[in-house]
Design brief:
Structural class: alpha+beta
Radius of gyration: 18 Å
CATH topology of the largest domain: Aminopeptidase
Helix content: 25-40%
CATH architecture of the largest domain: 3-Layer(aba) Sandwich
CATH superfamily of the largest domain: Gcn5-related N-acetyltransferase (GNAT)
Order of helices and strands: HEEEHEHEEEHHEEEHEHE
Amino acid sequence: MTDARDLLAAYDAQLRGAPPHAATHAPDGPLTRVAGPLRALVTGPPDLGLRGRELDELIARQRDFFAARGEAVEWRLRVHDTPADLPDRLSAVGFTPLPPSAVLIGPVAEATVRRPVLPGGVTLRQVSADADLHAVAALQSAIWGLDLSGLGDDLIARIGAAPRDTVVLVAEAGGEMVSAAWLAFRPGTQFATLLGGSTLVEWRGRGIYRALIDARVALAAERGVPYLHVDASPDSAPLLRRLGFQAITMMTPYVWTP
């Protein structure tokens, strides 16, 4: 399955529901509300099956639900989602679009499985201890200038629920964590998802990001996972494309903040 249309169909069928081992998730009609480390998510199929007033009521209900909780929420909209006026309807009730990401899929069998090549003095380590996972959250917060402290608790909960399904890797130099990435296996699907992959500014451009990809490709290959999925930023997409990933759609987060 290498045709982009087949990959998109598999992605829509297998990856559009709640992530496995999400701390909290609950359905609302065709949508699923999912707790997240930065903000809540709502996710659903490419066609919600609603139009006009019913669709507007569904959207407004998400805003009102999270407003009552004082919590921000993100609605992930893919460019092929219908109806075509869904972006306008989201904007009409206060959802604001953020920069889009490319949804990339890469066949593991076609990726070059190689030993990660790291710059001198940098080592890779798999972590699962609570202290390490909180350190990963602190690193992500520092890199992105956001309060991502909830990421530590989120990773702890996921690993606690299914230790083999979330693998967290960190790159360290001189006892300092300089980069972190994780691989989320998706039982019952053909996919695993690449997440994280953020590096401190002063350590970028030295091959650490590529090494973390190589390490996770090797893990997926060991488990016999056919495909890797990633929502890629403009910075990471070119490298992933060179490794055989192809774009199947674009994803724009629409965010409502109280």
